[in-house]
């Protein structure tokens, strides 16, 4: 199993970023996917999740209305569209496949 995140970077408050996670080594269409994040000094937390077929999603309260998770099953990729970013969204963002397979993360920094 390989998960490779991309799309992180430095963005000003109020800006947007789209994270991508390219998956390989398993049958992507059969597996629920999720995004987590970990800020310095804090525990890793669930940001958003999407079912295998993409029909259901859920979000942390702190990102509802601002972030959108989606998946391209033909591209074996899961996305996280992040809008109206705040400094408190600064963290390393990790892609997760199923219950236990993690990517290495991509850093998102929200700062002026």
Mind explaining what this structure looks like?
Helices cover 0% and strands 51% of the residues. It is mostly beta strands. The strands form two sheets. Strands 2, 4, 5, 6, 9, 10 and 11 form a seven-stranded mixed sheet that branches. The chain has a four-stranded antiparallel sheet with strand order 1-3-8-7, with no helix packed on it. β4 and β5 form a beta hairpin. It is globular, with a radius of gyration of 13 Å.
Notable traits:
4-stranded antiparallel sheet; 112 residues; mainly beta; 7-stranded mixed sheet; 51% strand
What layout of secondary structure does this protein have?
Elements: E1 2-6, E2 9-11, E3 17-24, E4 33-38, E5 45-50, E6 57-59, E7 67-72, E8 77-82, E9 91-97, E10 101-102, E11 106-110
Parallel strand pairs: 2-11
Antiparallel strand pairs: 1-3, 3-8, 4-5, 4-9, 5-6, 7-8, 9-10, 9-11
User: How are helices and strands ordered from N to C?
Assistant: EEEEEEEEEEE
Query: How would you classify the helix and strand content by structural class?
Result: mainly beta
Helix content: under 10%
Find the count of extended strands (DSSP E, 2+ residues): 11
Q: What does the largest sheet look like? A: 7 strands, mixed
Which spans have pLDDT < 50 for at least 5 consecutive residues?
A: none
- C-alpha Rg, in Å? 13 Å
Portion of residues in beta strands equals over 45%
- CA(first)-CA(last) distance: 37 Å
**Overall average residue pLDDT:** 97
Task: Please tell me what the overall shape is.
Answer: globular
Number of helices: 0
Characterize this entry briefly.
This protein is about 0% helix and about 50% strand. With about 110 residues, it is mainly beta. A hairpin with a 3-residue loop joins β9 and β10.
């Amino acid at each position: 199993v390989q998960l490779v995140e991309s799309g992180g970077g430095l963005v000003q408050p109020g800006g947007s970023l789209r994270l991508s996670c390219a998956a390989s080594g398993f049958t992507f269409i059969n597996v629920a996917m999720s995004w987590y994040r970990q800020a310095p000094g804090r525990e890793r937390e669930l940001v958003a999740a999407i079912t295998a077929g993409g029909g259901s999603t859920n979000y942390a309260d702190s990102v509802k209305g601002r972030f959108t998770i989606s998946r391209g099953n033909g591209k074996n990729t899961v996305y996280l569209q992040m809008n109206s970013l705040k400094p408190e969204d600064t963290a390393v963002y990790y892609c997760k496949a199923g219950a236990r397979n993690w990517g290495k993360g991509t850093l998102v920094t929200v700062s002026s």
